[in-house]
Please model this.
Amino acid sequence: MKHHLRRDARSILTAALAAADPTTAVEQALRSRTDLNQFHRIFVVGAGKASGTMAVAVEKHLGQRIAGGCVNVKDGDSAKTIGFELRRCGHPIPDERGHAGARRIAEICTQAGERDLVLCLISGGASALMPSPAASITLAEKQETTRLLLACGATIHEINTIRKHISSMKGGQLARLAAPARVLSLILSDVVGDDPAIIASGPTAPDPSTFADARAIVEKYDLRTRLPRRVSERLLNGAQETPKPGDPVFDNVENIIIGSNQKSLEAAARTAQELHYHPLILSSFVEGETRDVAGMHAAIARQIRLYGQPVAAPACLISGGETTVTIRGEGKGGRNQEFALAAAIGIAGLEDALVLSAGTDGTDGPTDAAGAVADGSTTKRSANSATEALENNDSYAFFEELGDLVITGSTGTNVMDLHLLLLA
Model:
């Protein structure tokens, strides 16, 4: 039975990833445009974990219409284009290659005129892959700020609020650089709610956040004395604000969400139903501390098994979003592996129950795994203490020993995380 659950979970994951395929999404978005021939020149810019795949799809569709461009992609991305550059850069900590690519993107945007189109390709990871520190901030200071924010448990929304206000491109500032050219952003969403102002720190979207919001986040996580001095000073003293809703710079800007976590959850539900489960989408808005969210999923599994609520077995509960891990130990892992580990503790002893948690981009933290799979016997089968591994944030080693890591390789897409709970 467990083999049956594992096979089905993999099939459901595959369907969810297919629904987030950026090639199909880009082609559909461009085929629907009737105005592309009116532009004198078309430039392609952007960044993100899926932006290489998106760039290939754009070049296939537009070919020699593309006058040039630059797209920053993650190290290891195998995509290739002929008519414009793809630059490999560091992620999640921005590096000098990303900085150089961001400068090139800024140059391209500023040379575009009112008869030109800047086609911007954005997917998750673009915040780190397109670093463009404000004039008073160095890349090293921005790197240290990113490390602190990742380690303190800040949400992606909070991290991006800080990034926007120590950047010269995020928070609508790329759109400001491209004006008066037309800007069309094709966006693969990796954030809860699919808000273009949040995705990749919203380089072409109005920014409702302020320096005051950034300062509040600094205080919330007690970062004032830990942040680099010039970062703290900029956030404390303020500077030119990012462009806000209603700013005329956005009159010629169009932001289109071409893929999202919700679309992947719906595809997962369809496949689960085809496999004769009763599917139930819990939410695509899942946030919070990873181990707490996983514990709630485990509690629902027990409710289903004992009472048949909120859906009767055979059941497939589906959720998505982006949880956070507060680092307490010195182990290795990622939020999806930690989700599976915490869930394994919660469903320990529960028969014919399985949890799979995976990042849709194929990576999870600083590991080669997308996530992990656990069942009611996971804690018993392991020679190691699941509780100790969880406390040390050492989920990778725990699941590696069991052979229960989910390894997909790079998927070419990124629409947050997928959590599956199956009960036979």
Remarks:
- The mean pLDDT is 95.
- The domain at 21-132+167-207+242-259 is CATH 3.40.50.10180 (Rossmann fold).
- The first strand starts at residue 42 and ends at 47.
